[in-house]
Here is the input.
Amino acid sequence: MKITGLITEYNPFHYGHLYHYKKSKKITNSNAAICIMNGNFTQRGLPAITDKWSRAKMALKAGIDIIIELPLVYGIRSAHFFAEGAIKLLAATNLVDDFVFGSESGKIEPLLKIAKFLNDNNKEFENEIKNLIKNGYSYPAAREKALKKFFKEKEIISEIKSPNNILGIEYIRVVLENNIDIKPLTIKRTSNNYHSTKINGEFASGSALRRLINNNEIEKLKNLVPKTSFRILKDELNNNKIPVNKNRLTYSLLTKLRMSSPEKLKNYAEINNGLENRFFNASLKSGNYKELIENINTKSITQNRVQRNLLHILFNLTEKEFNNIDQNGPAYLRVLAFNEKGEKILASLNKKADLPLITKISNHLKEINLDSTNPVIKQLSYEILADDIYSLLYKDPKYRKGRQDFYQKIIRN
Here is the structure.
């Protein structure tokens, strides 16, 4: 069986994702796909529009064969660490020879050139970025501007300008710097810019779809997502599970921040050079999530970074904790869902995978232990904690019970 790899969030699963899946199988001559998918919180530092189980079910109904969860400790970090977690999981399966991601042009060569350059640790380039950041540029903006100074080819300049290519470049960087024997491939994106809220034909961005869900305009999704996705989303709405409300994070975040201090906040990754004061002071003059973000935001840091930093604080994921986790890398392959073909892949994973295969949490963990020195226990503990906190975002109190991951069965199709 020829299997290709996909890295996704499916937030929610739409026609662009369906195209990605089908086109990926076609260009790789594969007859199956393994998908690495984020859990209940996304790389942008926000709760997913619907939980990981319903998103895994959407993927399964659309034809994805097996869905493996990207651990929280990689899923809510910057592009490079997100990519590192996902690529290393694909490599650990020992079943995929390639993976496919979407990009603006659908051309791999320019992205390979940029990735190789970034991995060379050019001192002049790094100094240029530092100077730009000092002048108020965010890191992504500074890197883009610095790259334009070193590359003159129009084809590469156009790739640098697109924020949609950032993750793709990081996937390639991880493959190259770790000598991972998996071939990166790319296809041209079909939908609008990731952050666009415009709808053109049947292809709409995740942002546009989430806006409709948040505005309780779910009927407008009928022609924008596959029928199976629409039915699942409609069921979630009828059961009063969506939309989840990110504003319910406010009290937890404000409590954590106000009980802390600028000095303690410096223990978290990326919070330094006075930013610790900004986070702490923002907590004192904010009463809701939007105000908190606005009071922290500056020209030199992106909103997504602020949202991720807040989740790190909420989960007590300090820089030291991340460093310890990164020494081992992703610790397991946790299966969320599979179909009939996926069951055969599961059997192959049992024989060939480099990491423990988790199909039932209670076989590996009896109670969460964030202080454990066992990487499997530690990373699973953070996952369960994240799901417990996500459950508090539901409108209906009956869904807010904790430790439900211990009882959730794998989804089969």
